[in-house]
Amino acid sequence: MSDLIRESVDLESLEQVLQSHLDDLGLSSVVLGIQCSESQDILRVTVEGIDADLSDLQKIFESLTEILDNQNLSEQYGIVIYWSLDSYPQKLETMIAQKKIKQTLLKLFRQDYYAKFNYGQLTEKFSYQTFYKTWQELQEKKLQRFFLITGVTGLTVLGGIYTLTRPCVVGSCQMIEEVKQQTSETITLLENSPSELTMLETKQQLEKSINVLKSIPWWSNYYHNALNLEQTYQQELDYLAKLISTNNLDNQIASIAHSNSISTGQWKQLQQQLEDAIISLKTIPQRSHLQDIATVKIEDYQTILSRFYEKLSKEQQANFKFKLAKEASDLAQKRQNNANNLSDLQLVVATWKTAIKRLQEIPPGTSVYQPSKSLLKTYVTKLSQGENRKSQEVLAVKLHEQGIDSAKLAQKAESEKQWSQAVNHWKTALNYLNQMPKNTFQRTKSQALIPNYTLALNRAQTQLTLAMEVEKLRSDLATICTNPSQICNYIMDERGIKINLTSDYIAQVWNTALQAKVQGNLQIQSELLNHLSSFEYRLQGISDRTGKPIEVYNAQGILMAVYHRRQ
């Protein structure tokens, strides 16, 4: 096989070699097919498969690289190996590197989200993009305010009064301390008990605090302090908005976790939402009071994503098997419609079994599980009908073969002139053919034999009748010629019967007749005439019955009498 590839790069043969090599390594469950193409001294090997784990991908890459090196193809071409998942090819070497990085990162993820939200049925997987996006903390924007101080020629008394009555203009600023205390208490409560309710309460408090701080005028000695605090609270409010936006996602996750069947599209949508949420939460900086809560949520979502692939892969496999089952069903129905012999029916049954097996492999909890149960009942019924049809055809073939075998025995018996056996065998052959089930392919062929077998039976019965008559004739002639002693011999052929009287018999009859005449013994003469008359009568009866002429000769071969059938 390797010599074939070295002589000429036959891409189809190369695909078969590589596929066979991976099958031998037990990788057929993850490898769906291999395609090879060449262009401008580049040999492209595309492996179509499911999303395999790191160890399988490494084994596949190393195995393919080894066999391609052994064929000296790396000296002729630049070789690139791709892994195609859902018709999206990616360099296999890159995928392996990505999975190694992902495997390292997964070790850092906490596992408490699963228990915390009771997502016992939820399994997720990280997307590759999540691991390679670099998210940097948003740098705190420094609000720079520039105040243009212009000379004021004078203030009115009313303006002065307004200025002095604004918050935190005269004396200390208790307002700031109160805002700080109230906001701190609310944030502490949120940190200790992060829930949708405490998040909303914190949001309200931050908005209230921001509004209070905005009321401090720019001419207050506490203005810059209030402005910095306002900016801090606004940032916290922005970060809190990111956390609040994930509450709906948490509810959706909880709902999906208790759902028995989720479509592939729903899983992919959830995956994208989780990735977007992680990206958003990562923008919350470490200096924020909300960073710890964000970190927990990020790790929770990453845990879900790490389990996501298993569920998605399970769903994709279920859909794939469902598709294969329907394709097998269509093929079985097509083969059944076109079947015209037992071999075709056996193939129909095997195809229905394949369709049923694919449906039985679909696990619970997938979107196609319930539809597969409905189809399974239909396929089982179709299989039962196919097996019954096949059984009828098997019986028909068996009866046909037995009929043929009996006919051969009948012909052999005929060649040996065993007409009684021939008749029995012909009758047996016809009996087998007449038992043929209706609506079978073999019945049509077998029915064509019945007329010939019937004629053969009639011929055999005729020959049996003739044979029995000949046997009776032989018995009658033997009785005549040995009554009471041997008085004659006979020869029988197709033309007729020749009877040769023995010299002793002729002499006995002649002497008896002379002696009776000399003695004048009328009784002996009468008995002798009766004997001769009986002899002649019996010979005439045989000729009448068989239609054969009977010639009687003396011991010297002289014709003495001829008997023909009387009309």
Task: Characterize this entry briefly.
The chain is α/β, with parallel strands linked by helices and 567 residues long. It is 66% helix and 8% strand. Among the domains are: 2-106, 2-Layer Sandwich (GMP Synthetase, Chain A, domain 3); 122-151 and 179-313, no CATH class; 482-563, no CATH class.
Question: What can you tell me about this protein's structure?
Answer:
This protein has 567 residues and is of the alpha/beta class. Among the domains are: 2-106, GMP Synthetase, Chain A, domain 3, CATH 3.30.300; 122-151 and 179-313, no CATH class; 482-563, no CATH class. It contains 21 helices and 8 strands. It has helices at residues 2-7, 11-24, 54-70, 73-76, 92-106, 112-116, 128-132, 157-165, 174-192, 196-214, 223-245, 247-257, 264-281, 291-338, 342-360, 369-415, 419-434, 441-447, 450-481, 503-519, 522-546, and strands at residues 31-39, 42-49, 78-85, 88-91, 488-492, 497-501, 550-553, 559-563. The chain has a 4-stranded mixed sheet. Strands 5-6-7-8 form a 4-stranded mixed sheet. The longest helix is centred in the middle third of the chain and has 48 residues, at 291-338.
